[in-house]
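Entry 12.
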Amino acid sequence: MAIVQKVAKIKGVADIVFCIDATGSMEPCINQVKQNVENFAKAIESNSPNTKVDWRARILVYRDFMSDSIYLKNDLPFVTNAGELRTQLDQISAGGGGDEPESTLDAILYATLNSEWRINSHKIIVVFTDATSKPNLDEKTIKDLDIPDDFEVFAQVLQENHIKLFLYGQQCAIYNDLSKLSRTTIVQFSNAVEELKSADFKTILDRIGKTVSDIASGGEVL
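Predicted 3D structure (tokens):
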């Protein structure tokens, strides 16, 4: 008599881009993400044991577009396990940054418009930064992505691409504006440089992973 193995049904498809601020003060945060990235993967895979989520993730690195010569690394491919994602994280070297606001809005746009998202995938962007965001897009972004420097257009791009955005950063007006958009989870710190050093990244990444699993398993529609 043949034994039929029960296979978890693939219910949802999720693509995740981690946008990580790699300026000098972010080294402790980057190390915490490295140490806990497996919790993220386990949370996706164990949250719904009878429903397999077909997930991929990749790392996008950004700094201050105005001050840093290496201001964006957006060529890392999507990978399908925690080990490969950790390998991408190991390539990050914290440094630079210039003045305190960083190019967070630019990075989110590059993740949205220059990622090889799969058709019908749930598109998730996770941002870690200990800085506020520059209120205006950089000229490089405007030219490269052919987009105006207009927050309403920025918001429209996120909505039209059905982006689910998680952002952890320093309190600022721009992040307040982002929090008003649908499908956004914005966590702001009064002193992000210090608070991210001691933040519980195991819990943070576990929570994000479980939310990704819920979204892709049918808990949230596109």
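Annotation: The longest strand covers residues 9-21. The chain has eight helices and six strands.
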